[in-house]
Amino acid sequence: MSKKLFGCLSFLLMVFFTLGTALGASGKISEETSACIECHASIHPGIVADWKESRMSRITPGEALKTSEIERRISVKDVPKKLADVVVGCAECHTINPEKHGDTFEHEGYQAHIVVTPQDCATCHPVEATQYSENLMSHAYANLNENPVYQDLAETINGMQVFQDMKTVYKKPDPGTCADSCNFCHGTKVDAVGVKTLDTDFGEMKLPILTGWPNQGVGRINPDKSKGSCTACHTRHRFSIQMAIQGLRGKQAWKYLLLRWKGLGLRSGSVESRNRFLGSNLCCLSYQPCHKWGR
Length: 295
Ligand code: HEC
Ligand code: HEC
Ligand code: HEC
Ligand code: HEC
Ligand code: HEC
Description:
- The protein folds into three domains: 23-94, no CATH class; 99-239, no CATH class; 246-295, no CATH class.
- It has helices at 2-24, 31-43, 45-53, 61-66, 81-84, 90-94, 118-121, 126-133, 140-145, 148-158, 175-180, 182-186, 241-245, 250-261, 271-278; strands spanning 105-107, 110-112, 160-164, 167-171, 192-200, 203-210.
- Helix 2 packs across helix 3 (45-53).
- The chain has 15 helices and six strands.
- It has a two-stranded antiparallel sheet with strand order 1-2. Strands 3-4 form a two-stranded antiparallel sheet. A two-stranded antiparallel ribbon has the order 5-6.
- The longest helix has 23 residues, at 2-24.
- A hairpin with a 2-residue loop joins strand 5 (192-200) and strand 6.
- It starts with a helix and ends in a 17-residue tail after the last helix.
- By secondary structure, it is an alpha+beta fold.
- The chain binds heme C (HEC) (5 copies).
- One heme C (HEC) binds at residues 136, 143-144, 150, 153-154, 157, 181-182, 184-186, 285-286.
């Protein structure tokens, strides 16, 4: 009798656990991403934990396409086959478009890159990426760094005054100083300029040396020539819209969240309709609820 009960119980437990895992992992993790996580869970536990909290670790592009347009948070209509039925993991972002990236490096059998760019995100979020590329913010690097008048301004702030030939002149600031001051927000120019060898727990490893890195400036020039950084607002590795919305203040935020809660779905795809509801002053200077700014 007790043997039967035991059998019954273990059968129930088995059903429970298989069901549990099936429900817990709604999306499939690709083989490539599983390999990344195997090592990176011990090197970067914070990154892996944050990613697990993110929406992209739970919903595959294929599943997203099955939801109604108002609920959906991807704007692509046709996801590349390879990406459709797996969740968006390390490999899906860090090995996408290898041929376009100046920072691509051979990494444990994968062609990986460090800087995941708006062009990479555009694989699934083309509307947001296009809107952002038309936004003034995405041009913040050149607007400052390629304008001689503004460069004079920057030099008087960042440069050092020195006495030379009986007059005071400004010594040009070094790139590190500019990266820490103006370009912290305006963005740096990031590119691979060499290779460094690291001694890691997994043996010797070669990684690219990047200039102007790390940086999350809004007009960053990326190693694939694209402009900007989505992580200026959607901090990695959670990439949440909640976090990006914190840029809104007080009454505006409440009004906005209320509308969103009411299911009006005023998303980035419908900036115009949202602005009709809220008034165009919704967009404040440095954090904008929308990717496109009427300018
Ligand atoms: C055999 C273990 C291993 C595997 C598999 C692996 N990595 Fe790594 N990865 C490492 C180690 C070790 C480093 C160096 C970390 C350090 O000390 O900065 C690294 C570095 C990186 C970096 C650069 C980090 C930095 O600080 O600049 C990225 C990005 C990266 N890996 C992504 C990936 C992706 C994406 C995959 C899967 C496609 C992957 N890795 C697979 C072990 C691994
Ligand atoms: C949705 C795309 C996306 C996914 C998924 C993703 N990353 Fe990233 N990762 C990024 C972006 C974007 C950056 C930072 C680039 C920037 O600041 O704009 C980044 C930065 C990093 C860095 C830091 C590099 C440095 O030098 O600072 C590491 C390491 C890294 N990711 C590892 C991982 C691992 C491990 C996973 C899987 C658990 C993962 N990423 C999943 C987009 C992604
Ligand atoms: C391979 C496709 C793919 C790529 C590449 C990708 N995403 Fe996503 N993203 C998704 C999917 C799928 C969702 C969930 C969609 C849904 O729930 O309707 C999502 C959701 C989001 C959300 C909403 C999250 C939330 O909590 O509501 C943000 C923000 C986002 N992605 C930003 C990014 C950024 C930034 C990048 C590049 C660094 C990126 N994504 C790259 C597929 C992708
Ligand atoms: C905290 C973030 C931040 C920092 C740091 C910063 N800026 Fe800006 N900068 C902005 C924003 C936001 C704008 C506004 C864009 C707009 O509305 O035109 C801007 C615009 C400008 C413009 C006008 C550009 C144009 O499009 O005509 C100049 C010039 C400028 N900044 C110079 C500088 C200089 C010089 C420094 C360093 C001494 C600096 N900024 C540091 C955020 C920043
Ligand atoms: C200036 C800040 C800012 C930047 C930069 C930014 N976003 Fe957003 N993003 C937001 C805010 C705020 C929201 C939430 C408002 C909303 O629901 O429209 C949002 C929403 C989203 C969503 C959800 C859209 C939906 O339909 O619910 C996606 C996807 C997204 N962003 C992707 C991106 C990508 C890709 C980039 C880079 C090309 C990017 N964002 C750059 C602020 C930003």
